[in-house]
Design brief:
- The protein has 153 residues and is α+β, with helices and mostly antiparallel strands.
- Helices cover 25% and strands 36% of the residues.
- It has three helices and six strands.
- Strands 1, 2, 3, 4, 5 and 6 form a six-stranded antiparallel β-sheet that branches.
- The longest helix is centred in the N-terminal third of the chain and has 19 residues.
- The chain is globular and about 45 Å long.
- It starts with a strand and ends in a 17-residue tail after the last helix.
């Protein structure tokens, strides 16, 4: 498994605002869909959630808006794992339209056991080991950062 998870989706007409470009809130929605795709690929899918009562919560999220996105565009979002410990992980995503970078996102996420009430807990060992393998890959994720997200905050 490569440390680059690609998700594509078209810009919908209801996402376009009065300035005739994609409203800022929909960048977040598109990044959220891409993160769902990442979670499905690494094993935090619907089956896992229903069988374990565990899920993933976003603890912190930063976005950079770099270029306008117009109606009719196809968004290509590449998501990579940047860091992980046994309870939390950091993702970096880049959104492009026709090979032009239009936005980036970084998210600090936590593995949550929802029973009996939500609390941060360790992820399964097999998923954590796959995260370590992703992080060992030689591809270097280059990205813009609004501030340094850390697993220790």
């Amino acid at each position: 498994m490569l440390n680059e998870f690609v998700f594509k989706l078209p810009v919908k007409s209801e996402w376009i605002d009065y300035n005739k470009h994609m409203q800022d809130a929909y960048y977040g929605l598109a990044f959220s869909y891409a993160v769902d795709h990442f979670q499905d690929c690494v094993g935090f899918d619907e089956r896992y959630r229903s069988q374990t009562g565990c899920t993933i919560y976003v603890l912190e999220d930063h976005k950079f808006y770099l270029n306008e996105v117009k109606l009719g565009s196809e968004l290509v979002i590449r998501t990579s794992l940047v860091d992980a410990d046994k309870k939390k992980f950091i993702l970096h995503s880049e959104m492009s339209v026709q090979d032009t970078l239009v936005a980036t996102s970084e998210m600090l996420q936590a593995h949550i056991n929802t029973n009996p009430k939500p609390r941060v807990t360790e992820m399964p060992t097999d998923i954590y080991k796959s995260f370590r393998k992703l992080l060992e890959q030689s591809n270097k994720v280059l990205y813009r950062r609004s501030r340094k997200l850390s697993l220790n905050d």
